[in-house]
Amino acid sequence: MEFAEKIKQYRAHNNWTQQEVATKLGVSRKTISSWENGRSYPDIFMLVQLSDLYQISLDDLLREDHEMINNYKQEHASLAKQDRIFTISYLCNVVISLYFLWRALFGTGMINQLPPLGRLLAGVVVGLLSVNVYFLLSKADWKNQNRFTQVGSILTFIVVTALLIKLDFTSFSGTAYGIGAGFGRGFVVALSAMSIVEVIWLYPQFRQRRNR
User: Fold this and answer.
1) How far apart are CA 97 and CA 156, in angstroms?
2) Three-class DSSP category at 33
3) What is the Cα Rg of the chain in Å?
4) What is the DSSP letter of 64?
5) Which of 101, 88, 95, 104 is nearest to 122 (CA)?
6) Positive or negative CA dihedral for 141, 145, 151, 155?
7) CATH code for 3-64?
8) Predicted pLDDT at 73
9) pLDDT > 70 fraction of the chain, expressed in percent and rounded
């Protein structure tokens, strides 16, 4: 018997409507209807909730429904891939954050002393790592973070930006070149602050995904 038919029978056995089950699980009635008609499957968390609600083992719920088992295998593989990508992106962000801190404290003298090809390669690496700052931001789960993390991230960004401005900014003229240089430095400071914020506040997600 397929999963959809099973949960439909278990609900009928308890004399519950789809709306009653939806209320107990904290989802919409349409979601329950979609599960019972085989249009979609619950995630692992909701599958455990269904098992507890109907007092039946997960093995009994999943047995014989090979399509659903394959669906969960594919979902697990997809999540594992996303976790690997996030982990690598986070570690790359740590590297660029260290570079930005070094740049703010000691300048770019070391890179400027490299031969032309070395400066070119260094610029390419820094550019790719800088793009990764935005990539990591898009992969982070910010919406499900608590208020403390959200407020803390914003405050950290403000404080780090202020410190980097003090370290990195020098006076510049009001000429077009000076204004352009100021905007360029401002962009680097904002990027630097963002990368450092990600290192600090995304570490719990990094640790969770690395160990999952």
Assistant:
1) 14
2) helix
3) 26
4) T
5) 95
6) negative
7) 1.10.260.40
8) 80
9) 92
Long-range (24+ apart) CB contacts under 8 A made by 127-134 are 129/92, 129/93, 129/95, 129/96, 129/99, 130/96, 130/191, 132/89, 132/92, 132/93, 132/96, 133/93, 133/96, 133/191, 133/194, 133/195, 133/198
Mean local confidence (pLDDT), 91-107: 90
**Residue 165 and residue 182: Cα distance in Å, rounded?**
11
Q: 72: which 2 tokens?
A: 């969960």
Number of C-beta neighbours around residue 110 at 10 A: 11
Task: Give, in degrees to the nearest 5, the angle at Cα 101 between 97 and 106.
Answer: 145
Q: Between 60 and 152, where is the model more confident?
A: 152
What tokens were used for 10?
């278990």
Least confident of 49-63, 112-126, 171-185, 189-203: 171-185
The model carries a pTM of 0.71
| Token duo for residue 205 | 């997600």
What residue ranges do the domains of the chain occupy?
3-64, 81-211
For the residues of 167-212, what is the DSSP string, one character each?
Answer: HH-----SSHHHHHHHHHHHHHHHHHHHHHHHHHHSHHHHHHHHH-
**What sign has the CA pseudo-torsion 185, 90, 106, 152?**
positive
Q: Which residues lie closer than 8 Å to 130 by C-beta, 6 or more apart?
A: 96, 191
